[in-house]
Write a structure and sequence with these properties.
Blueprint: H1 22-28, H2 50-63, H3 79-91, H4 94-108
Helix pairs in contact: 2-3
InterPro entries: IS402-like_dom, Transposase_6_like
Biased composition (Low complexity): 136-161
Region (Disordered): 128-161
């Protein structure tokens, strides 16, 4: 891969967790939906390589930065490009299929420990219901009396002379 994909926050000799290995890419690539063909006339920009975009997605998810702050210097494309691909791949069911493929590989290698897996979860509705919540009294302060002036009676018309 491109040497621009390295980051100084990772120790020398270690691969950053957002860089997709060749082995993992071989599993992911067939699961991605095919790109629509480019128009002959006015083809627009060439789409970014899926692997670089995936690295950008993983970088954002790993670091927690907002999509719009994805550094262009890393070569992953813009944050919006990465976000759109994530959305499109999610809609196409890529992540679910990848999860199933990786679980199958672990199962085949006898490395899947299901001792902590939840087999069935259920909710039982309380038919009689719980206690009704009591309306809480207001904790707002009562309106204080105005001490600078007191109410006066309405003026009565004086008898005309």
């Amino acid at each position: 891969m491109d040497d621009r994909l390295e980051c100084s926050a990772v120790r020398r000799g270690e691969q950053p967790p957002w860089i997709v290995s060749d082995e993992l890419w071989a599993e992911i690539d067939p699961l991605l939906p095919p790109r629509p063909p480019r128009r002959h006339r006015f083809p627009g920009r060439k789409p970014l390589d899926d692997r670089k975009v995936l690295c950008g997605i993983l970088f954002v998810l790993y670091t927690g930065i907002p999509w719009e702050y994805l550094p262009q210097e890393l070569g992953f494309g813009s944050g919006m490009t990465c976000w759109r691909r994530l959305r499109d791949w999610n809609d196409a069911g890529v992540w679910q299929r990848l999860h199933e493929v990786l679980l199958g590989k672990l199962r085949a290698a006898d490395q899947l420990d299901m001792s902590r897996a939840v087999i069935d979860g259920s909710h039982v509705r309380a038919l009689k219901g719980g206690p009704k919540p009591v309306r809480a009294r207001s904790t707002a302060a009562a309106r204080a009396r105005n001490t600078t002036s007191s109410p006066t009676r309405a003026a009565s018309p004086s008898p005309s002379a």
